[in-house]
Every structure is written in structure tokens, then in C-alpha cells.
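Please check the following.

. . .
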Amino acid sequence: MPLTATDVRSLVRENILKLTPYSSARSEFKGKAEVLMDANESPFDTGINRYPHPKSPDVRARLAELKGVNLDQLMLGNGSDDLVDFVTRIFCRPGIDNVIALPPTFGMYKVSAAINDVEFRAVPLTPDFDIPMDKLMAQFDENSKVLWLCSPNNPSGNLMQTEKIEYLLEKFPGVVVLDEAYIEYIPERSFLPRLNEFPNLIITQTLSKAWGVAGIRLGAAYASPFIIKMMNGIKAPYNINVLTQQRALEILADEQGMRERITFLMQAREELAAALQEFEVVDHVFPSVTNFILVRFQNSDRVYQHLLEHGIVVRNQSKQPNCANCLRITVGTAEENARFLEVLSALNQL
């Protein structure tokens, strides 16, 4: 049985439950505002002289429409990094509680734990990047508050098995955070339609990947209304600025354009993967459902340096668990992919 809503409430730090959130000037009245003299802003119109709405209602409404959730089931952060920190601070008592993650995975889970003086327990994925259920569950105890699952996983590019995620949602004694940063590349595998089944489930998504606006730093958390209320209670008053809200609405209005870009990237990914398999310097190309490919080379450091000398930057993952000699390669434009293969081909012939 998954945790109940009452169980989830008991996981929250006592001081967070008692917290009175900061109330911004703009949130203390209802009705139409014609003259704003409440927040000590400049009265001169620069287009951005007013504070943004603290809860980004228009962006949230559009996301709720796209994702099929209620408004009280989502909140926004200044990138997913914001959301990771919110979860850690809400549920984890410094020096007492622990969080668990399965490397290789997104590095901010560990960083957030360290910043907040929370024990970080790492249970490496199997060599084929699957969840080692027995080893993972052996790490659970009464102070385990957060389980981080990344699906599709970064940097391996694979999905976690649905049945295993379901089982962990039922058995983990804390909240399970499912990082779906890359879910637009395979939307049918999102857990969002099942959000109401699991009171202890938090899903994070982002506009940085498939939506193509990493520069505005906007992430979204989806959870029960209670968890969303807790997250809103600890966020900065105006954590999403006016320009970010405006640009987000523009990009979210073009879902078709996003889908077309995904179609290109998925085809380009398969072509890039097929080409890489023909190189002698390549040992293995891991299957991926995302916009990147994890590749094991005979000598990743040599390949990385060669690419860098020719102005091509990829991510060296060789120090991550089960990623010896691995580079993570993001699918680029047709021209970028061709240039990458051209430069790699020169090394292949040496």
C-alpha cells in the first residue's frame, strides 16, 4: 500500500508545517487594480517595472491544460534545481534524515543533500542501468525521506520499468520524486495521469529540454495539493520573473512546433547512433529514448580531448558508476551532427 495523505503530512519537517509563508504586497488584495501603490516599485512604465505575479497563474493554467492536471497540483521553480532543493528542505531534517538516488543520475540530488546537511545514499544502477531492487530496498529505514528516480535517466537515456516504479511507490517509506525532464521525448510513459493514485509521488518536468528554452530556467513540480502547498510556502516570493513568464507562455503556445522538433531529433538520434556503431574507437552505443546518446569508447579521455581540440564539447561521464570510458553526446542540428562525425572520423583513422 502506498502512503496515505496523512502519512505524507507526517513526513514534513515540523517547522515547515508551522511556517507562515511570506505574503507579498501583490497577494494581499483581491479585485481589479488600477493604481498600484503597495510595493514601492517605480511608477514609470518600462514594461517590467512591476513585480511578477508570485504564483505565475497564466503559465500554470497553460501547463495544467497541456498536462491534464488541476491548478492546485502544480507549482513552478527557477529550473528543476529549485524544485530539488524545495523537496529536500521540506521533508529532510538536517543531520537526521537521508535521501536515496541511483547513480549514474542527475547530480543535483547529491548536491542538494550536501547543502542541507542530509545523508545521501547512493545505490548504483546495474551495468545495463536497471534498478537493483534488493540492494535499493536494503537502504530504506525510518529516516529515509526522499527517493530520487530519473526516468528517462540522465545520462544513460533509458526508461525505468513501470512495474518497479509502482512497487517503489508502494514500499518506500517517504516521498518518491520521479524526474521526468526528458519525458516529452516519450510522453506515453509519463506517470502524470496516475498522480492521484500515489499521495507520496512528486513529478518534476522542465522546459529546458524538448521545449527548447533552457535559458529562461523554468521547471514544474506536480504533486498532491498538500505537497504543492508546502512547496509554495518555502519558495522565494517572486521566484519566476516577468520575462520568464512571458517567454514561457509564448513557447507553450506552440506545442506543434515542439513535437516537430522532437520528430527531427529522434530520427537524427537513430542516424547518429547507427553511424557511431561503425567506428572502431566505439565499443558500445547504449539505447536511448531521449535527445542524447551514451557511448562507450575504447579511450573516452582521448576522444573527449580530440573533440575539444576541434571545438566540439560533449559530456565526459567516465567517472560515473558503470560509465567507464563513456561520453554523453547530445543530438544536435544536422550540421552539428555531421561536423561531430567528421571530426570523430579523423580520430578513427589515426
